[in-house]
Design a protein that fits this description.
Layout lengths: L5 E10 L2 E7 L8 E2 L2 E3 L6 H13 L2 E15 L4 E14 L10 E7 L10 H8 L7
Parallel strand pairs: 1-6
Antiparallel strand pairs: 1-2, 1-4, 2-3, 2-7, 5-6
């Protein structure tokens, strides 16, 4: 286990009142539904990380980025600890495509709160905070 938490950036992409979720593969949380995102790189802004991760994973572009909530996510079984920073963004263009098939099975738009399960721990923790989409 790392002796310090890692920083994850999760992007809540909103289109027509729905959010983009992907089914995780080959990583902690395998088989769960999660927002697109990844690790914040050294020297990277949150906004640049969000844009980079979204495009690398889905081919989608986003706009109107704004900081959202955060969660403290301790994956006991895997021995991992993340602080997940959420970025809210509006869909700008592109249809979600699985661009990293070794990491994600599929992308789908879902209403919020998502009724699909199982959900990735950061989403579960976000739901415990009673997070609601803006508007």
């Amino acid at each position: 286990m790392n002796d310090r938490p890692l920083i994850g950036v999760a992007v809540i992409v909103i289109k027509n009142g729905k959010v983009l979720l992907g089914k995780r593969k080959n990583s902690h949380g395998e088989g769960t539904w999660a927002f697109p995102g990844g690790h914040l790189e050294f020297g990277e802004t949150l906004e640049n990380c969000a844009r980079r991760e979204i495009f690398e994973e889905t081919g989608v572009t986003i706009k109107n980025l704004r900081c959202g909530p955060y969660t403290n996510d301790i994956f006991s079984k895997e021995g991992k600890h993340y602080v997940t920073l959420f970025i809210l963004a509006d869909h700008e263009s592109g249809e979600p495509t699985v661009k990293e098939p070794h990491k994600c099975e599929k992308w789908q738009w879902h209403s919020w709160p998502p009724q699909i399960e199982p959900r990735f721990l950061p989403i579960e923790n976000l739901l415990k905070q009673n997070f609601k989409l803006p508007g």
